[in-house]
Design brief:
Helices cover 71% and strands 0% of the residues. It is built from 15 helices and no strands. Helix 5 packs parallel to helix 8. The protein is rod-shaped and about 95 Å long. The N terminus is likely disordered.
Length: 295
């Protein structure tokens, strides 16, 4: 490169050119290097130190500042992977999305973000199904799938992958969680029926099936043995989830349903017989006693 003075080459060649090359090569074909937190931390330290060098022009320093800002973002993304509190990981992920609504990000940053999102989404399947329902872990995760739409932190192809792999499934899981959250039994029955009608043929994963089974189990365990109408509704629900085309339960889970149906039939038959002996308007106490005895 020619300059005005034959020895004046240092700032032209050794500063921005070499650092730009080093910054670009922080990711290689080895995925381990792509997500190596120590590598990124080391590079940020070197760039921070070098940014004060007299070899840099003002333009060079602006470029290096941009590099450092990118590395700071990548560090914050990678830090999410080591968290142990799942709710905090989801919150941190949403914060990063919110704080980076605008901007242009390189493929390295996008790939680091994409792999981190996948890791956090997949981590939900390591949770106990009932725990996920009671702790409302799925709802903030569903909000994350919404926030990811259009984010510049992912490429269009990455967004499509996230949408196809997680979007629809987490939508079903949120509906199950919402149904479970209803304290009123009749409302929970109605919400469960809505999940069945809307998502009964949706392609899901084993975790989704476990969530639905947990919802079904709580309906069975807490069934009102003195309410004939609600028992019949519950029986209808169980009958509707047994076909092979119903995807929210596995074949193994469906295999246990006939026993539950038999138990419900016994409950219903007991109440029907009681109605023949004692008029419905006066049998509340008797029904309650039979219910307690049946337990």
């Amino acid at each position: 490169r020619h300059t005005r003075y034959w020895r004046d080459w240092s700032s032209d060649v050794c500063s921005s050119d070499l650092l730009s090359n080093c910054f670009a090569k922080r990711a290689t074909t080895d995925q381990t290097n792509l997500i190596d937190a120590s590598l990124i931390a080391t590079l940020k330290t070197r760039l921070t130190t070098a940014s004060t060098s007299p070899l840099f022009t003002t333009s060079d320093k602006t470029t290096v500042s941009g590099f450092i800002a990118t590395l700071n973002l990548e560090q914050s993304i990678i830090a999410l992977r080591t968290g142990t509190d799942y709710a905090q990981q989801i919150t941190g992920l949403n914060t990063i999305i919110t704080n980076n609504t605008y901007g242009t990000f390189g493929i390295i940053t996008q790939t680091i973000f994409f792999t981190t999102v996948k890791m956090i989404f997949d981590k939900r399947t390591t949770l106990d199904a009932t725990g996920a329902l009671t702790n409302k872990q799925i709802t903030p995760l569903f909000n994350t799938t919404t926030a990811l739409r259009g984010t510049p932190l992912t490429t269009a192809a990455q967004q499509t992958t996230l949408s196809n792999t997680y979007g629809g499934i987490i939508e079903v899981e949120k509906a199950i969680e919402d149904a479970y959250a209803n304290a009123d039994y009749a409302t929970k029955l109605t919400a469960t029926q809505s999940v069945i009608n809307r998502y009964g043929s949706r392609t899901v994963v084993a975790f989704t099936q476990n969530l639905f089974m947990a919802l079904l189990q709580t309906l069975i365990d807490n069934r009102p043995r003195t309410d004939l109408a609600q028992l019949n509704t519950l029986k209808t629900i169980i009958t509707s989830v047994t076909p092979a085309t119903f995807t929210l339960l596995s074949a193994a889970q469906k295999a246990n349903l006939p026993t539950l149906t038999t138990t419900l039939n016994n409950d219903i038959l007991a109440l029907q017989r009681l109605d023949l002996i004692i008029p419905p308007a006066t049998n509340t106490t008797a029904i309650a006693q039979i219910g307690r005895a049946h337990v």
